[in-house]
Amino acid sequence: MKTCRICRGEGTPDQPLFHPCKCRGSIKYIHQDCLQFWLDHSKKDTCDICNTKFNFKVIYSDDSISKKLSFWLLLKNLFSQFMHWQNYLTKILLFGLCVGFYLPISIAAIDSFYDFLAGIQKFKSGVLDSILFNNKISDDLSFSEKLFILQRDTIPKGITIAIIYGAIVLAIILIQNNLAGDPGVQKIINKRIGLEPNRQKLLLNALIEKKKHLILRRKSDIFYQLRLENELYDKSVEEDGLSAQKVAKLDLQSILELQKLLVERINKLTPNQYEKLKSICTEHPETLNEIPYDVSKHERSFIVIGVAYLDRKFRLEFMCKPPAEESLIVTEEEFKQFLKDISDATSHTANGPPNVPEPEPAPAPPPARGFNPIHNNPDVIDVDEQLRDDAIDRLLNVINGPRFLDNINEQDDRDEGEDQRPHLRAEDQPNWDQFRADVDNINDPTSRLAAQVLEAATGPAIPFAEAMAMANEDEAAAAPAPAPAHNANVDPFANANRVDDNIELPPLRPHEREFFRNIVNPENVRRQPRPQFRQPPQAVQDPPMPIIDEEPEPFWNGPLSIKLILTATVLVKSVTLFVLFLLKCLPYALGKQTIYSFYTTLHYFFPNMSLNHQNTFQSNYKPLNLFVDFIWRNIIDTVLSTISNVTNKTLSDNLSEKISIQLLGIGTVAFSVYCIMKYLELKSSQLKPLSGNSRSLYIILLQMKNTFKVFTLMFIEWCLFPLICGILVEFALVPIFNEDLYNYHLEPRLFGFLSVIPTWFLGTFFMYFFASYVSMIRSKILRTGVLFFIRPSDDPNIQLVHDAIMRPFGLRFSRILLSLGVYAIYILCEFILVSWSIRLFSPIAILPFHSNFNYEKLAYVGLIICADFMKKPLNIYWKYIFVKCCSLLRLSSFLLNEDHANERGKIVYKSFFARFNSKSPNYNNPVAYSETKEYFSSHPDETCCFVPDGNYVRAPDDDHVARNFVRTLFVAVTKSDRLLEETPALPDDEEKINPYGDIDPFDVNTYTIVYRPPQFKPRLFLLFACLWLASMVFTFGIYLSNIIIGKTIFKITTLESVFSLPSEYYKIDVYTLSLTMLLLSQLNFLIDIVQRQMQATNDSPEASKLISMKKIVRSMYLNIRNTITEFFNTFAMRVIVRHAAYNFTIIIYIGLAIQPVFNPHLIEPIRIGALSMIIFTFVSLISSFLFSNAKSIKIFRYITVFTIVLRLIFITFSPAPQFTNLKPEFIEELQKLNTVEEIINLSLKNKITPDPLIIQSVGNTLLPPFLRPAIKFFMLGEFTGVEAWIYITVWFIAAAFIAVSSAIKLWSKFVELTKQIYFDNMKVLVNTEGNDDDDDE
Amino acid sequence: MPPKFSTAHKRLLRELKEITKNPIDGIIASPLNDNDLFHWRCIITGPNDTPYEFGIFEAILNFPSDYPLSPPTMKFLTPIFHPNIYKDGKVCISILHSPGNDPLNYESADERWGPLQSIEKILLSVSSMIADPNPNSPANIDAAVLWRNNKDKYNETVKKLVIDSLSL
């Protein structure tokens, strides 16, 4: 039966069923109304299942089908459509103007306003003009000229400023964001200025409790000991006059008696004896058993008894007295140690794995054992709770000492098995009770204490004191008669908490509040469980929708409203005002003031000081001169001129001067922040933490300091470091690419500040390559753990921000410097030295690369891809080199983990000549070096023997080895891991390296045993030298094969002349090199084929047919294809190809469209045209962003084509280019120029519009030589040429065709729409064809 | 444009007819009362060979007035410990989510609600979800964690709750 797939109803005559998509079966049919509802609801126009688009046919009613569409109706519709869209268009236009025009101008204006404020500029013309144009125009310019300057200078300036400061602010926000969640900050604060006062108090109380407990424990120990001793004394009687009973009887009376006796005895002693006794008693009680025998027996027994007596007396006093006040005073060191123990114990569980942030603050304070946890929901398994219990157990260990838990158990035993213990005496009983009470006292609160400590030490800012107070109250209310001991225990904490009542506590979080409420009112909880289950079902009520006032104010509401634009503008401007003030104006003023005050002070002491110095260095060696001049010009001159400008109050608009003064200002701020922080730190200690306002001040300053530190480190690491590398690499590239050695710059050249960007990219690129080389060696060649000091780049444990704040700045900085040094030396040895020496000293001119046009450098991309092909052969080559070098230097075991017996020592020959004709020695029969002579005399037929030397060492066997652990490694051991010598004591600089007790995320603590030959370090250096040599050999090999393979192929195929290469074989060029590398990379594969073939031939002679030229070529082709596919399948390439390519098209189009806007020289002749194009471009640009699907991009392309055509028309019909009137000198001069910039400058000087020249020049440089004849066709050159006209006509016709066709389409659509609006009609679904009569089950 | 009320009514009536004609094994569903087709009560028995076996789970289906354009909501009245069922009994399953309100794209559009789905399919899906939880979009974190880390304890908890819910 046919049913509608939506309403399940059948078709009726007025509601027939349609089958508009390709679906079959029970979902084939649908009502038109139902479908319409669904399409309106889902905002789709395709089927969910088969994705067919639903087609509707418009059917007009009978009377309207005959009517004609009048012009009036069309116009009416046009107007209504326009009214419908104009609002939107205006908004877009306004938004575009705001973003592209108004905001950059205002930002630039704010910037120059601050310049005026700082005194760099002085007002010349009107204030507005001065600010807008930065004093760069004269007064008599017309409005359009001003507009032109505005878009040429001010807007780019504004955008640059927005980008730079935006990047800085973004970086700061990101760092702040990262820091906010970092547990390390709290650690720093705790370490520097002490814990937060209330937490500190809690912890201090805990420590005092701990101390009390320790005293109690000591008492209990002593108690048992004394009792035991008493019993012993009962059994035996001392030979001396003192009765054991008396000694043991521990009441006051006997003590006094004994004292008297002792005093008598002591009075009888000689001074000598007295001293001895005293020293033994006080200093070395443990030496009692070793009392020297020169002491007479009498004295000896006296000493024994005396010491025993004194000892017991002290112990007794200790037992009887309450703990002295002094013993409970906590020293700073003790407190620090305590904190450290706690953090050690808790960091493992409470913080989770170090790099994973705590998933959620604990739902509530821990239900410690002291007060009953409230468990109402049995099916909720609280994982946190378990963790917490764990942590509490650990803490108990810390607080009570490791034996505490045993103690509890022991005590339980004691309760049951008291009979087994020594019999108690009557007089001891009170003590025992006291002791019991004390221990009971201690047991119960400790767990609570631990919970508290845990909370205070690690937890989030949960107001524990409050919680405890509430809990206590609750307990008191709920249980009216709690055990007195229990109550007594609560008191100290309650008191401690009450002391803290005046401290402001952070507000409760909602779930915490809930929890506490539950504690206070247990009924709450009891009533609560599963309140919603079992309720009678009700209709689901949608949450009340917020009522939006939809007032008919289209400009003020809706997306992209004027309100939004205005708000955004005001926001951006005020943010700019603030940020620039903070980052530019303030530091500038401060820096100025600092320089000024320093200079005046210096000037006071050295009145003859002068700031005018000239570079007088002259040497015969040109590069050195250039270098000194470079340094002088760029650094010393800047510094000197800055100082003189500041002191003379003639500040200049020079960028480097401004930046250096700003930096100095920031430095001043940093220094004063540092001073304040130091002062605050000195004022506080662990026992006296900083509190109140000064604490919050410190925290704010610390936040600033941390941000600054992280920012500086990251700036150095990510900007300066690559930049320096880039400069070095650039220096190495000079002799490779440049004809003129002493006047070189990298293409493309950007202006001012941005000119460093290409260099930076070069450096980053180089570092990337170096890192991939290292990781190749690490993963494919070396034993794991050799390069433990270079962290793997893909390490998930890297926490940049965290590390930056937790380690001292100097340490991090020195690490960066060290790696910079390594890079610098590497570049120097491997590249600079080689390239310069080849260029300078090579007898034949190998370098520079042959190049005949600028943009040939694009071909180097191909070279890099080919280098990627070389990966496999490179791997094999380096593996081979490493194995060879290591076996030569006997480092195989250490570096490659291949233990060869023959490497474990050296071979000693019988005589010098035996070296040449002896077999390998017997490695199983090692001989000591001193015994070689004997050996040779006893074995006359042996010419050489094996003398083992060196030793085994422990070495890390994993790259993730813990830092501290590494310091214990590299000690000499035997093969079976027995230490050969005492391990040297480690330098105790943990405090210096890791002042805040940060946990090392690397926690591998395993090692392996490897052989280390003697003279290890020289061997390593030799290894580096070998590697260097190997790389040179490799390079030379490539050069040779370039000559043999690439050059020859080019010569034979006459490609040489196509690329206009030189005929000399020794000259390098990029094309042959790429080809050579491509072919070389296949070499490995070829060898593989041949080897397999050989094997096959050996196995069966018939298979020899397998090898054929065709097959080899085919498999090579396949291999190349695979390699290329592999290359394009790497992640980066995938992203570029799949996503970026699409966006790239847009960017190119936008670039083309924008070009006339931002390249003033191209549009100068016709300003109105330029203005219209600006608007046009912005509209198209924004619309392309707004509707970023394929369709709109297509439209956008049309628009860009139009723009270009318009531009060409403007250029063509503009009156400026008159080549016929050109002076011959100008043309001559023009021919010498290379860059676009120079052409523009020259033509401006001659008052000529430079466009055609530029197109010519770009065409000349962009295309390879064999395509250059084609430029003639494309070139617009002199506009008298027929080709140009043909070209323009063709282009115009193409564009016109596109335009007309799309206009016609648009028009017909519009007509259709008008018809639908004004005439009666209905839409009818169109059935898909060809399935009317099938399935009807 | 809200659809005609009768569409939802008609469709629900049809579905009721179908479901009474060809009942599904282990599942019973019918409107709460005869006057109101928009609230259904259904009973799902726990799938065999799962810890939910022998369990009888009662649930309420609430249909919106623009059904079948928007999906119904489902809520268990019987307490049930399951990774994809909230503690208050609300069911989190892709078939009950209208396309487009899933910002994270956990579920492909095919699995979502559309007018092609039906009550029968929903109930079957829920039944199979009970047997085979989807840990990617947990509604009950505790259950999901337990299910992933400690199957035995999970099964035990579920069984205990099932027996409790039967009030034996």
UniProtKB/TrEMBL annotation, chain A:
Pathway: Protein modification; protein ubiquitination. GO terms for biological process: ERAD pathway. Keywords: Membrane, Metal-binding, Transferase, Transmembrane, Transmembrane helix, Ubl conjugation pathway, Zinc, Zinc-finger. GO terms for molecular function: ubiquitin protein ligase activity; zinc ion binding. Its main location: membrane. SUPFAM superfamilies: RING/U-box. The keyword Membrane applies. The chain crosses the membrane at residues 92-114, 155-175, 564-583, 659-680, 710-738, 750-774, 816-838, 1020-1045, 1140-1158, 1170-1188, 1195-1216, 1284-1307. It is a multi-pass membrane protein. Residues 409-418 have a biased composition (Acidic residues). It holds the Pfam family RINGv. The keyword rRNA-binding does not apply. It catalyses: S-ubiquitinyl-[E2 ubiquitin-conjugating enzyme]-L-cysteine + [acceptor protein]-L-lysine = [E2 ubiquitin-conjugating enzyme]-L-cysteine + N(6)-ubiquitinyl-[acceptor protein]-L-lysine. GO terms for cellular component: endoplasmic reticulum membrane. Residues 419-428 have a biased composition (Basic and acidic residues). Residues 354-368 have a biased composition (Pro residues). Coiled coil: none annotated. It is found in: Membrane. Its EC number is 2.3.2.27. Residues 1-57 form the RING-CH-type domain. Residues 345-379, 405-434 are annotated as: Disordered. This is RING-type E3 ubiquitin transferase.
UniProtKB/TrEMBL annotation, chain B:
GO terms for biological process: ERAD pathway. Coiled coil: none annotated. It is an enzyme of class 2 (transferase). One of its GO terms (molecular function) is ATP binding. The keyword Transferase applies. It catalyses: S-ubiquitinyl-[E1 ubiquitin-activating enzyme]-L-cysteine + [E2 ubiquitin-conjugating enzyme]-L-cysteine = [E1 ubiquitin-activating enzyme]-L-cysteine + S-ubiquitinyl-[E2 ubiquitin-conjugating enzyme]-L-cysteine. It holds the Pfam family UQ_con. PROSITE patterns: UBC_1 (PS00183), UBC_2 (PS50127). Its EC number is 2.3.2.23. Residues 7-167 form the UBC core domain. The active site is at C92 (glycyl thioester intermediate). Keywords: ATP-binding, Nucleotide-binding, Thioester bond, Transferase, Ubl conjugation pathway. Belongs to the ubiquitin-conjugating enzyme family. This is E2 ubiquitin-conjugating enzyme. It comes from Pichia kluyveri.
